[in-house]
């Protein structure tokens, strides 16, 4: 039977690797939003998005789409004109509609890349009463 022993340097390197943070290997994801997914709000002046890590600014895309209007069952989705701004922390973004949102259902779609350069994205909906 052969026994293999790790040198102290190899053991230290293995421990450092095992204990090192893996945040750089993770994908950027949405961790919070205002309004929250599926929320019902009376009035909305902006949408705030908070991400798990800093985003690479040129990769960030976001849009706001009205997907339903009360009393109009055949309402086609309509893109809403917005201004968008990244937060100084690089981990947040604000979407501000150029006009007041009328009652209806809206969907926020976003995509971006973080430190690992992999583009990720998702969407969520909310309702304005």
From TrEMBL:
SUPFAM superfamilies: E set domains
Main location (coarse class): periplasm
UniProt-listed Pfam families: CopC
Domain of life: Bacteria
Signal peptide region: 1-26
Domain CopC: 27-128
Coiled coil residues, start to end: none
GO MF annotations in UniProt: copper ion binding
An individual GO BP term: response to copper ion
Keywords attached to this entry: Copper, Periplasm, Signal
GO cellular component: periplasmic space
Annotated compartments: Periplasm
Family: Belongs to the CopC family.
Protein name: CopC domain-containing protein
Source organism: Sphingopyxis italica
């Amino acid at each position: 039977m052969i026994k293999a022993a790790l040198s102290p340097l190899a053991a230290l390197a293995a421990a450092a690797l095992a204990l090192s943070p893996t945040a750089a290997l993770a994908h950027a994801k949405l961790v919070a939003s205002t309004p929250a997914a599926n929320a019902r709000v009376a009035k909305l002046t902006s949408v705030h998005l908070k991400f798990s890590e800093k985003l690479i600014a040129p990769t960030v895309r976001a849009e706001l789409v009205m997907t339903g209007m009360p009393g109009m069952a055949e309402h086609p989705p309509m893109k809403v004109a917005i201004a968008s701004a990244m937060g100084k922390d690089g981990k947040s973004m604000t979407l501000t509609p150029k006009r007041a949102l009328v009652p209806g259902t809206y969907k926020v779609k976003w995509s971006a890349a973080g430190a690992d350069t992999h583009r990720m994205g998702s969407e969520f909906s909310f309702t304005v009463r």
